Amino acid sequence: MGRDIRELVPDSDLPRVVETGIPYIGKVVNVKGLRRIGSTYPLIKDGEVIGAIGCLFFRSLEEVERINSEIGRLKKEVKLFRTMQRHQHRAFYTFDNIIGASTAIKDAIEMAKKIAQIEADVLISGESGTGKELFAHAIHNFINPASPFVRVNSPAIPFELAESELFGYEKGAFSGANPTGKQGKFELAHNGTIFLDELSSLPLSIQAKILRVLQEGEIERLGDSRIKNVRFRMIAATNVDLKKSVADGKFREDLYYRVAKATISIPPLRKRKEDIPVYVDHFLKSINRRFGTHFVRLTEGALSCLMNYAWPGNVRELINVLEQACLKKWKGEEIPRTSLPDELTDPSSHQSPTLTSTGLKTEIRETEKILILRTLNQTNGNKRRAASILCMPRSTFYYKLKEYGIKI
After folding, report:
1. How far apart are CA 87 and CA 214, in angstroms?
2. Is 106 found in the same domain as 41?
């Protein structure tokens, strides 16, 4: 138009940029009485400034404020998601949370502390309800609590999805897959710990892939040919005799010797009866907080029933029994014998002090079978509900049904 830009935009930086060759970026300027945000850049040819160009990036400051507000919101969401992920893959318990007065449990804790200080994979064995996951949390938190702790409930993973859950998959790997792909559990556990609960329930084909990951430190996502390196400690837990499973062809022998480098055996509650009073005192306080009750002790008769019971469900069953007793009694400071479930007050469910070790095992098996039958009768044959009432994993419950020849 042949007019000086300063006639339209008095504080334009164009003349200054032509003179100095220095750009002005993100500056507020007045254009016809309105405040705009723009930038001015020099045009350089053969090392010489031959002109300048200016452009407006936003129509108004309000638009900038809106964009800043949107960026702030997105930053908050990212922070929230990162916090949620950290909590999702975090170990919550330490060795201080594992209580007990028996020599057996103290020895298990000391062994676990020693193992926690080395980078060896760990196998924790013990019956259902003995606290294997509690030990896994404590081992992870002993040295590097800030690293990820990824839990895998092996019996809950459908066989056909086991590979994609553990090793991840690329987009379009199979019908119904996440369009962006998905990280597997081993990837999520990188530089941390992966806890495989009830390892023996995984199919043999997956066991072979786990062995490769442990040996090579490499994974391959489903639908991808690229190899990814991962570094982690594996803690596996089992409530079955893995050596017997190897002999029966249900568990890989090479994987067994790979995961059983460092082993911790948690004894069942019936073999450490001196822990029962300690657990009663501890769990009553927890139950009081949740239920709003005020129980401080059991009567001598009630405690005697607990000390004489076989505890096929171990500590988990003890907690369940105390909860039932508190709900039944509800008020007062003492829990009487009459508030305990029938299976504890029934003399047939008690152990005889004169039994031999072989006789004791037989008695425990019979007691467990009777308890399962009673619970199935109570649930009208509903196996899922029966397993829940007994605080027993469904895989273990179905194994017991087969072991005792119980048919619905």
Report:
1. 26
2. no
DSSP state of 251: S
Q: Which domain holds residue 245?
A: 95-267
Residues 6+ apart with CB under 8 A from 37: 26, 27, 28, 29, 56, 57, 58, 61, 64
The per-residue pLDDT for 59 is 61
For the chain, how many helices (H) and strands (E)?
16, 12
Alpha-carbon gap, residue 308 to 263, rounded angstroms: 30
User: DSSP letter at 197?
Assistant: E
Q: Are 139 and 116 in contact (CB under 8 A)?
A: yes
User: How many whole angstroms separate alpha carbon 269 and alpha carbon 266?
Assistant: 9
Q: What is the β-pairing status of strands 192-197 and 149-153?
A: parallel
Q: Is pLDDT of 374 > 90?
A: no
User: pLDDT: is 78 or 326 the higher one?
Assistant: 326
pLDDT 10s digits, 50-79: 999 988 766 666 777 777 788 888 887 777
What is 104-141 written as a DSSP string? HHHHHHHHHHHHHTS---EEEE--TTS-HHHHHHHHHH
d(CA 221, CA 173) in angstroms, rounded, equals 9
**Shared-domain flag, residues 137 and 255:** yes
Structure token pair of residue 60: 């108004």
The structural domain count of the chain equals 3
**In angstroms, rounded to a whole number, what is the distance separating the alpha carbons of residues 50 and 389?**
85
- Is residue 82 one of the residues assigned to a domain? no
Residue 256 sits in the same domain as residue 156: yes
Q: HSE-up of 15 (CA within 13 Å, CB side)? A: 9
Distance CA 378, CA 371 (A): 10
| Residues sharing a CB contact under 8 Å with residue 383, sequence separation 6 or more, in sequence order | 376, 394, 397, 398, 401, 408
40 and 101 assigned to the same domain? no
